[in-house]
Amino acid sequence: MVRSILTFGDSNTHGTQPIVTLGEMRRFGSDIRWPRVMARALGPGWELVEEGLPGRTTQDADPVMGAHMNGQEGLKIALASHGPLDLLTIMLGTNDLKHRFAPTPERITAGLAGLLDIALHRDMAARHPGLRVLVICPPPVREVSPLRGDFHGAEAHGPALAEAYRALAAARGVGFFDAGSVIEVSETDGVHFEAPAHQALGAAVAEVVRGMV
Q: Which of 12, 65, 156, 176 is in Cβ range 3.0-4.6 Å of 169 for a Cys bridge?
């Protein structure tokens, strides 16, 4: 039996490389991106669907990047487009830390709760019987150039997300993993992951997934 897993997230699930110059977008190849690393570690019994959109938030339409950055609409589309799925990973919250969203840990966690409401709804249970969900908290953001302006104040809120996410995951009966326990963001832009971090995260998530199925 082949199981299927959908990795739902933002630029760090997409595989965006650390940004050196604003406006320049580069993506790691399939040998580097953490979802692909995870899939290779899980082996041929798994089918991977990568669903990472740079700029995606847990709940907000972005006034700069567009309304489609609202992860709640994106998750509905992704779950309706694929399946039946056996496991869903959600790693979002980094973009919610942008100053224009007036972030607080409570508000971001509420966005995650909305995503779980969608994934665990009875309509999705009928489409994806037995779906298991793994919440992955992204590592804390650092306020460094060239993204420092967008993420002004993020360092004050990011470190609190892990415990808030952990508590919500426990309350909703879903899996939880703190990516910050194994990786850190790049010193180049303070948001994205370097190649070794993708490798480490992919291997760690594969272990968590094995324990959930």
A: 176
C-alpha dihedral sign at 136, 206, 187, 30: negative
- Per residue in 61-104, pLDDT (tens digit) is 999 999 999 999 999 999 999 989 999 999 999 999 999 999 99
Burial 96-132 (b: 16+ CB within 10 A, else e): bbbeebebebeebbebbebbbebbeeeebeeebeebb
SS3 51: strand
d(CA 209, CA 43): 12
At residue 176, the 3 state secondary structure works out as: strand
Q: What is the mean pLDDT of the chain?
A: 97
Q: Which two tokens stand for residue 74?
A: 């994106």
Helix intervals (H) in the chain: 11-14, 34-42, 71-81, 105-119, 122-127, 161-172, 195-212
Q: CA-CA distance, 48 to 19, in Å (whole number)?
A: 26
Tell me the CA distances in angstroms from 60 to 91, 117, 122, 147, one per residue in order.
Answer: 15, 16, 24, 19
> Do residues 28 and 197 make contact, with C-beta atoms less than 8 angstroms apart?
no
- Overall pTM > 0.85: yes
- Per-residue pLDDT reduced to its tens digit, 130-158: 999 999 999 999 999 899 999 999 999 98
CA distances (Å), origin 172, targets 76, 114, 199: 19, 11, 29
